[in-house]
Amino acid sequence: MKKYFSKAEVTLWCSSVALIVISFCIFDRENYLTLFASMIGVTSLIFNAKGNPFGQFLMVVFSLLYGIISFTFAYYGEMITYLGMTMPMAIFALVSWLRNPYNGNKAEVKINTISKKETLFMWIGAVVITILFYFILAYFNTANIVPSTLSVTTSFIAVYLTFRRSPLFALAYASNDIVLIALWIMASTYDLRYISVMVCFIAFFVNDIYGFISWQKMKVRQSKNI
Fold it and tell me: Cα–Cα distance between 196 and 27 in angstroms, integer?
């Protein structure tokens, strides 16, 4: 593993874990499920940045745990999104990444580029999903419904691009992180324990930006070896 991850990646992971643990010790100290989910999530991102399918397996686990955490604050949009969309799509993405290794290397997925026509199809799907989920969330009296609905939109785009093995998936997740940071800031005004969840997504945002940079480098390298 020392040879697999660069010093920058090890530093990023260690810094993210330290930030998550410190915020947990300051603001929570009780909900160890939140701490465990955060550790799983940030670890999945460092593997995703390498194009390693193991990252998608960890994302399945994180989605399950995050759905439970969201339920505790009546963020039903987050719960439904992660349990009903992100987790199933992470499973599909895992299968897709395993079936498309780069040059037979199962630890690195072959990067794909989607066409303009497929991009249009994705956005149409995002609009349909957003409208549908808005009424579902309204029915369940979801807290902070506007950002919760926006989270559904960004999550759908992120999981679709992940499934299609596009480097843009990391940027989509970074956009989703921004929405989630805002959501959990709102939640923390009622319960300071949720600050640790907010800090978790700040760490996720930094890791997703790195993931995009890493995939861009992988794309260039893979294109040269065709």
Answer: 6
Other beta carbons less than 10 A from residue 166's beta carbon: 21
pLDDT at 226: 60
Among residues 125, 13, 141, 160, the alpha carbon closest in space to that of 77 is found at 141
Backbone phi and psi for residue 28, each to the nearest 5 degrees, phi listed first = -120, -80
Residue 209's Cβ-count burial label (10 Å; 0-12, 13-18, 19+) is middle
Structure tokens at 111: 């990067």
Hey, what are 206's tokens? 């930094």
Answer yes or no: is pLDDT of 174 > 90. yes
Tell me the per-residue pLDDT of 64-97, one tens digit each, with 9 for 90 and over: 998 888 887 777 767 887 888 888 988 999 999 9
